[in-house]
Amino acid sequence: MGVEIEVEGLTKSFGKQLIWGDVSLTVPAGEICVMLGPSGTGKSVFLKTLIGLLKPDRGSIMIEGTDIASCSERDLYEIRKLFGVLFQDGAMFGSMTLYDNVAFPLREHTRKSESEIRDIVMEKMDLVGLIGAEGKLPGEISGGMRKRAGLARALVLDPEIVLFDEPDSGLDPVRTAFLNQLIIDLNAQIDATFLIVTHDINTARTVPDNIGLLYHKHLAMFGPREMLLSSEEPVVRQFLNAQRVGPIGMSEEKDADELEAEKDQELPPLPPIPMQQEPSNGIPRRSQRAPGEWCRENGVTPPPGSFEPNMTMAVGG
Ligand SMILES: Nc1ncnc2c1ncn2[C@@H]1O[C@H](COP(=O)(O)OP(=O)(O)OP(=O)(O)O)[C@@H](O)[C@H]1O
Ligand SMILES: [Mg+2]
């Protein structure tokens, strides 16, 4: 059913360099969240902290009553079994076939027989559309196939939480669209909690139930997709709509001169909020909300043209 992750007052630095401070958010059970942020704001560090690979300076990460930030190695080992992680490059063993790569966690962490392992591996390969490619080596397949193989491997232990670090980096737009559909379909099917780090604005606008934005060493905003897509907060507005006008510059923050120069520039209007992508079988996901529901409940008027079916993306400016 997926489990909730409750992060409270989380702070992480390396030596004197603060990466982010006082991050608090709740990743709801079974929902899809996207974490955004300029390069170097510590998104990967955040994911690594959630699985206990990095220790925060302060704060807590509660998962099923255990605090990942302070628990024993033994508890951490148990909690980690709840996670499936898709690393940025797929992180496949180059000398092993896709079959052996996907079977690896099962051989490492379970006592299942080879025939049981075969059933699970083939089921997950089928799920990600890789039947027929089991015998290939990672070097013999495309980047998109490697991502899907990495996803199959992240799923073999039936995770309650799946973390994706830029699953769409290096993919062409069509493959990204297929991967996004796969993520939605998987969430509908396994009901696990998904947290996706991405730079793809279209993914952020159409896939998740919730969006977070890391900026300038803190969590600028975290909440339902419609809340961020209708937000007038300058950093959120600029980032989610891929606009040049706003506080974010080429090297993170614009300086006073740059901001002064654009102060009379009119902001382009907020683009319409697109429909959330739906499972391909048409059956709504458990955590799916009706289009416009958050806006209605919170008295927010969405930008004109929002929630029209088959609306094309309109970002930039
Ligand atoms: N193990 C480490 N030791 C010291 N500094 C680190 C370590 N890991 C990450 N950092 C620093 O933390 C900062 C954030 O890195 P991180 O990889 O999380 O960024 P990111 O938001 O994922 O960026 P990108 O979008 O480019 O992937 C960087 O300045 C990086 O140099
Ligand atoms: Mg990263």
Automatic annotation (TrEMBL):
UniProt-recorded Gene Ontology molecular function terms: ATP binding; ATP hydrolysis activity
Keyword Ligase: no
Domain ABC transporter: 5-241
Keyword vocabulary terms for this entry: ATP-binding, Nucleotide-binding, Transport
The keyword ATP-binding is assigned to this record: yes
Annotated region described as Disordered, given as residue ranges: 255-317
SMART domains xref list: AAA
Name of protein: ABC transporter ATP-binding protein
